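question for whoever is on the cluster today: can someone run the full assembly for these? two chains, 229 residues total. i dont have access anymore since they changed the login thing
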Amino acid sequence: NAGVTQTPKFQVLKTGQSMTLQCAQDMNHNSMYWYRQDPGMGLRLIYYSASEGTTDKGEVPNGYNVSRLNKREFSLRLESAAPSQTSVYFCASSYGDHTDTQYFGPGTRLTVL
Amino acid sequence: TQLLEQSPQFLSIQEGENLTVYCNSSSVFSSLQWYRQEPGEGPVLLVTVVTGGEVKKLKRLTFQFGDARKDSSLHITAAQPGDTGLYLCAGPLWVAGGTSYGKLTFGQGTILTVHP
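^ ran it for u. tokens below:
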């Protein structure tokens, strides 16, 4: 099992460009999440999907959109990148509720110039 | 303002020393999780504490959940260089009118460096 995979691993964008971060899990998990990690801020939830076909906003959703393509895949889109979106992005998944273990991918390091 | 405050933010110690990391909040959490993250990787769950006053031990690591379920601590005995990493506490974020289903709020983290 690969667990949670993310692509790309690194990306540099110019202000105003768009891109999609891809995430896939092979653990048959129901819930998937997108976080961003900034120095001194811990991880902050951007969006989550409790099940296939549903998505909901987290703490910092502005400037992002998500798609739960199927049970395995959950993508994060930046329509018009801004320097404030420079961060490390993590995708995670869990089988069930908030006490369940969340399994994280290796992250995507995004720089917006 | 962080819902979960971790202290200290940085800890640099010698191999063999003991240390404690604290995670505090003014809010009550139904459970708290501790994660460890190494550079270039995602966080990995160490433990979940659910009951107020609960103590869990994982080899040299001892986790405690406060009686009022507002705070938690991680104590490492005889630290080793392999313990180096970022330690994060996390708890479920409750949204008014919604549920906490699968949503965690994280502390800002404690960067631990253990020197040989």
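summary bc i know u wont read the tokens: The first strand of chain B starts at residue 5 and ends at 7. Chain B touches chain A at residues 2, 4, 6, 9, 30-31, 40-45, 48, 50, 88, 90, 92-93, 98, 100-109 (CB under 8 Å).
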